[in-house]
Write a structure and sequence with these properties.
alpha/beta, Gyrase A, domain 2, four-stranded antiparallel β-sheet, four-stranded parallel β-sheet, 51% helix, globular, binds arginine
């Protein structure tokens, strides 16, 4: 338990002993004043007493609670202010106990009360298309959310849920046929074994798809060929299925590389194409339940009794099957829900997807609830805003194109290299170490700049600002961690080792309280599915360390030995927690910089 929650519990008991609700004992961080914590329950207690017809002065309640708590082991001092605020300073021994416990175990107190099984649907890149800047946010936020849940002790599976099953595949098949008609995949009479080597590379796929899709836009005959190929593929034509398997393998290899470069790892590499076989039964089932109806040849499910098409109000129906017989985005997402239910039966599914798809998921969840597959609270849309250019629109390259993810990462590394040169950091590194450090800084800059905003906020891409070593940036946090590493190395070299932590200085106490806030920050970040709360915590911790280090020299000659050991212990505890929290938000820390 954190010191702050122990204090809350103790104050709660004091309130209860006086006949008030224990929840009134909540001890929170002070917004102003000299004491680090405050307890504001006395005012509410007086309010509740008044409702019961008693008349009490909140200041009197505060005095009574303060009297009862004055000698408590956790309490250093309590001061009553204004109408009945209690300003609380924890005792030195309570701080010392907390600090030493955190030094022994940086993950102390992080677990949730109850472990859930959770699936996180994020990433969502499409097969056979190169990754681009639009894939950044889902990957980075989804990965952080996944690690937050894991750090809380939940059982979590991340699923990439690859997209674009359907016409896209027909485009690829038919375009490849025009290019290489002699491949055995196109010969309907071929009965042998198809080659195990794919006939295409990722570069081929990213060329074939736009070629076909552009041609089909102006040429109905070309479109028809793609349609036919799609239909035959979905009906299981052998050569086409073999091609599809190649396309998927080639795409997965490329996606693994792309997401790997971002430090994003999935447990499940499933996608829309995996659930295709489940669709007919699913549609059958929904129809038997009486949930579907025909509408102009299409098959739909109504999800909102108040939907008004004319007024464009409410939630529109979900289309399961188009008039052409094609299945749609909702259909594959519904089949995926069925698949997850039978394969994993999760307590909770989170979809980390662009906010612009909010309606899609609202509709989706309504069908799943209507069908009785899931309870409403088991499915949650975790939306996010866009990364914009300086024009306030989703980020584009200078010529208006879509920036490839690898180019974005490269851009960040270049910006980081420039920063390193400017600040004279790493001048003595050899080239490969400097490049590696720049890579880590560039990525940290990009991810932290993304994660530190509340999810739904749009932000402007600004590599200059993101890579600054001062202020609330990824590089600042890396620098803070690296600095502690270097202090610890120096201590090691001079034969000083850490010992019992005895916080004495006010800056030491503040650092311990910052450390103490971690469990609460992590719990809140889970609760709100909000990595930015952890970013705030990490930044506050780094700042608290910085103040501590300025006020309390660790290895200086004049520092007494016992203080050296205590401060070193505090430095180790800080590094342990920084490493823990930065791993969750996906930042890699160099050994030196
Ligand atoms: N592939 C989709 C897209 O590119 C994102 C997938 C999101 N996840 C889902 N289950 N629909 O927009």
């Amino acid at each position: 338990m954190s010191l702050q929650s122990e204090l809350s519990e103790a104050f709660g008991k004091a309130f209860a002993a006086l006949g008030h609700a224990p929840a009134l004992g909540a001890v929170v961080e002070s917004t102003k004043g000299d004491a680090p914590y405050q307890c504001n329950g006395a005012m509410a207690a007086a309010g509740q007493a008044k409702k019961r017809g008693e008349k009490v002065n909140p200041r009197d309640i505060a005095s009574a609670v303060a009297d009862a708590m004055q000698d408590h082991a956790l309490v250093g001092s309590i001061e009553i202010a204004g109408p009945g605020f209690m300003n609380v300073t924890p005792s030195g021994s309570a701080l010392a106990k907390t600090a030493n416990a955190l030094a022994a175990n940086p993950a102390r107190g992080l677990s949730a009360d109850k472990a859930l099984s959770v699936m996180i649907d994020y990433g969502g890149a499409n097969v056979a298309k190169p990754m681009h800047v639009g894939h950044l946010r889902s990957a980075v936020i989804g990965e952080a959310v996944k690690r937050i849940f894991r750090a809380r002790g939940h059982e979590v599976l991340g699923d990439i849920h690859m997209g674009d099953w359907g016409l896209q595949m027909g485009h690829l098949v038919s375009e490849l046929q025009s290019e290489q008609p002699d491949l055995p995949y196109f010969d309907p009479d071929f009965t042998g074994e198809y080659p195990s080597e794919p006939p295409v590379t990722m570069a081929d796929l990213s060329r074939l798809y736009p070629a076909a899709s552009n041609a089909a836009k102006s040429d109905p005959e070309r479109m028809e060929r793609s349609r036919v190929a799609t239909a035959e593929l979905q009906q299981g034509r052998r050569g086409y299925r073999a091609l599809l398997d190649h396309f998927i393998d080639v795409s997965i290899a490329a996606l693994k590389q792309g997401y790997g470069a971002l430090g994003v790892e999935f447990d499940l590499w499933k996608g829309e194409m995996c659930v295709d076989p489940l669709i007919p039964d699913m549609i059958d089932g929904l129809t038997k339940q009486g949930l579907t109806r025909e509408d102009d040849g299409a098959l739909i499910v109504d999800v909102d009794p108040d939907y008004d098409m004319e007024a464009r109000k409410g939630v529109p129906p979900v289309m399961l099957r188009a008039r052409t017989g094609a299945v749609l985005y909702h259909t594959t997402d519904l089949a995926t829900l069925v698949d997850r239910k039978t394969e994993n039966n999760p307590d909770l599914i989170l979809y980390v997807v662009d906010q612009r798809q909010a309606m899609h998921f609202d509709q989706l969840f309504r069908v799943a609830v209507k069908a009785g597959w899931y309870a409403p609270e088991q499915m949650e849309f975790v939306g996010f805003g866009t990364m914009n250019g300086t024009d306030g629109k989703p980020f584009k390259t200078r010529d208006g194109g879509v920036l490839r993810l690898e180019d974005l990462i490269e851009m960040m590394q270049v910006a980081a290299e420039k920063r390193l040169a400017e600040s004279g950091i790493g001048e003595d590194f050899d080239e490969s170490e400097r490049a590696e450090v720049a890579r880590m800084i560039g990525l940290a800059a990009l991810k932290f700049a993304d994660l530190q905003n509340a999810r739904l906020t749009n932000y402007v891409f600004d590599p200059e600002r993101f890579t600054a070593f001062e202020g609330k940036t990824g590089p600042y946090l890396l620098y803070a961690a690296v600095r502690i590493k270097s202090i610890l190395r120096k201590a090691d070299a001079t034969g000083v080792s850490s010992g019992e932590i005895v916080p004495e200085h006010e800056a030491e106490a503040a650092l311990v309280m910052a450390l103490d806030g971690y469990a609460r920050a992590l719990a809140a970040s889970e609760d709100k599915r909000a990595p930015h709360i952890l970013c705030d915590h990490a930044y506050g911790l780094a700042q608290a360390f910085s103040r501590f280090y300025a006020a309390c020299p660790i290895l200086a000659d004049e520092t007494p030995d016992a203080h050296k050991r205590s401060r070193l212990g505090l430095a180790e505890a800080t590094l342990g927690q920084l490493e823990h929290v930065l791993r969750i938000i996906g930042l890699e820390i160099p050994d030196r910089m």
